[in-house]
Design goal:
50 residues; mainly alpha; 0% strand; DUF465; DUF465 domain-containing protein
């Protein structure tokens, strides 16, 4: 069960990273969205560290 949770968190972290990269590369990136995605990514990273 622990491995499944860890894998899900890793997948979510990777997805958030991809979304941040994609949004950053747009001609007019939404900075508010990027900030929110980064916060979510940080929460996932903190959860992975536990």
């Amino acid at each position: 069960m622990q491995n499944a949770h860890f894998a899900a968190l890793n997948a979510k972290h990777s997805t958030l990273d991809q979304r941040i990269t994609a949004e950053s590369q747009r001609p007019l990136p939404d900075q508010i969205l990027i900030a929110e995605l980064k916060k979510q990514k940080l929460r996932v990273k903190e959860e992975l560290g536990r």
